[in-house]
C-alpha cells in the first residue's frame, strides 16, 4: 500500500486534488467523520491506495473500506454482520439480493458506472509464462502442473464469469480438462488474496479483471474471442449510518477526480452512469447521475 501522504502529493501534482468541480468539495466547506464503504475486492488497490486518500484530502471525511466478493458482501449487509454506508459491486445483479422487504430493503437504486474485462494475469517468472504469451490460453492452463487461481463462484461475480468462460472454451475447443477445472474447488481463493498469491509465486496465473491486474502491474493475456466483463455499480445503502458522508463519497467517486483515478487504473468509465430506479436517487446525487 502506498503512503497516504505520498498519494496525495502525487494527485495534487497531477491536478487531481484541490480544484472544486464535479465530485469535489471546496476546502472552505470541508466536513468530517467516517464513511464506511464495502466494495468489490477487484478494486482494493484503487480504493485503498488512491480513491480513499484522495477523498479524505478533498473533503475532510475519513474513508474506511472493506473488500470482498460482491455476493459475500451483500450477504453480510443483509445479515447485519457488516454495517456500511456505500456498497460497490462488480455485478448489477448482486443489488437484487438487497432489494425489497424480503431482503431488508437495503437498496432502492444503484448506478452502473464502469466496466473491466475478464483476463488471465500471469506471473512473469512462471515456467509457463512464455507459453501463455505464444499459445492459446485454454491450451496452456490445462497443462499438467499448471497452477491456476480463481475466485469462488458462490460468493463472487468474477468466479461466476470464470466458470462461464471455462465452460465456453471447453465446449468450443473440445477440452474436457477446462470443464473439470470449473467443477473443481482446487485453486479457489478469496478475491482480495488472489493478487498476492500470484505475485508470491504460489500460482502460475489467475483470472482477474483488467483493472486489478493493471493496478498491480500484472501482465495479462486476453480471453478473446470470449468477452466477459465486470460491471461496477454503486449505491448509498438505506439506513446508512453516515448518510452525508456517503453522498459525498459517491459524488467524489463519479466526479472528475474519481473518474480520473479509475480510468488511469483500467476501469472503462461510462459516459453517463446508468441508474436502475431514478425516482429513488437522493436529490444531492441527481446532477452527478444525470437524473432529471
What does this structure look like?
The chain is an alpha/beta fold and 292 residues long. The chain folds into two domains: 152 residues, Periplasmic binding protein-like II (D-Maltodextrin-Binding Protein, domain 2, 3-Layer(aba) Sandwich); 106 residues, Periplasmic binding protein-like II (D-Maltodextrin-Binding Protein, domain 2), CATH 3.40.190. Helices cover 36% and strands 20% of the residues. The chain is built from eleven helices and nine strands. Strands 1, 2, 3, 4, 5, 6, 7, 8 and 9 form a nine-stranded mixed beta sheet that branches. Strand 1, helix 2 and strand 2 form a beta-alpha-beta unit. Helix 1 crosses helix 2, helix 2 runs antiparallel to helix 11 and helix 6 runs antiparallel to helix 7. The longest helix is centred in the middle third of the chain and has 17 residues. The N terminus is likely disordered.
Mean pLDDT: 89
What share of residues is helical?
Answer: 25-40%
CATH superfamily of the largest domain: Periplasmic binding protein-like II
What coarse outline follows from CA principal-axis ratios? elongated
Order of helices and strands: HEHEHEEHHEHHHEHEEHHE
| CATH structural fold name of the largest domain | D-Maltodextrin-Binding Protein, domain 2
Query: What value does the Rg take, in angstroms?
Result: 20 Å
Low-confidence stretches: 1-29
Provide a count of the helices.
11
Outline the biggest β-sheet: 9 strands, mixed
Structural class assignment: alpha/beta
Total number of strands: 9
The total number of structural domains is 2
Which second-level CATH architecture of the largest domain applies? 3-Layer(aba) Sandwich
How big a fraction of the residues is strand? 15-25%
Amino acid at each position: 500500500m502506498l503512503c497516504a501522504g505520498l498519494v496525495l502529493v502525487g494527485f495534487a501534482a497531477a491536478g487531481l486534488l484541490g480544484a472544486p468541480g464535479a465530485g469535489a468539495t471546496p476546502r472552505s466547506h470541508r466536513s468530517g467523520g467516517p464513511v464506511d464503504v464495502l466494495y468489490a475486492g477487484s478494486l482494493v488497490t484503487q480504493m485503498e491506495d488512491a480513491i480513499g486518500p484522495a477523498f479524505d484530502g478533498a473533503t475532510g471525511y475519513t474513508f474506511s473500506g472493506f473488500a470482498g466478493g460482491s455476493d459475500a458482501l451483500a450477504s453480510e449487509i443483509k445479515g447485519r454482520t457488516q454495517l456500511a454506508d456505500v456498497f460497490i459491486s462488480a455485478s448489477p445483479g448482486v443489488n437484487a439480493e438487497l432489494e425489497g422487504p424480503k431482503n431488508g430493503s437495503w437498496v432502492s437504486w444503484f448506478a452502473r458506472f464502469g466496466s473491466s474485462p475478464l483476463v488471465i494475469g500471469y506471473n512473469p517468472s512462471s515456467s509457463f509464462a512464455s507459453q501463455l504469451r505464444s499459445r492459446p490460453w485454454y491450451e496452456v492452463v490445462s497443462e499438467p502442473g499448471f497452477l491456476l487461481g480463481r475466485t469462488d463462484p458462490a460468493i463472487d461475480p468474477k468466479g461466476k464469469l470464470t466458470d462461464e468462460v471455462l465452460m465456453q472454451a471447453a465446449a468450443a475447443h473440445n477440452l474436457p480438462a477446462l470443464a473439470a477445472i470449473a467443477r473443481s474447488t482446487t485453486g479457489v481463493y478469496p478475491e482480495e488474496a488472489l493478487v498476492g498469491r500470484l505475485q508470491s509465486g504460489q500460482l502460475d496465473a489467475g483470472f482477474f479483471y483488467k483493472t486489478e491486474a493493471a493496478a498491480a502491474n500484472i501482465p495479462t493475456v486476453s480471453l478473446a474471442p470470449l468477452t466477459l466483463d465486470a460491471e461496477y455499480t454503486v449505491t448509498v445503502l438505506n439506513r446508512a449510518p453516515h448518510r452525508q458522508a456517503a453522498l459525498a463519497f459517491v459524488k467524489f467517486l463519479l466526479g472528475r477526480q474519481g473518474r480520473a483515478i479509475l480510468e488511469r487504473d483500467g476501469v472503462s468509465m461510462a459516459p453517463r452512469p446508468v441508474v436502475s430506479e431514478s425516482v429513488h436517487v437522493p436529490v444531492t446525487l441527481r446532477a452527478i447521475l444525470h437524473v432529471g
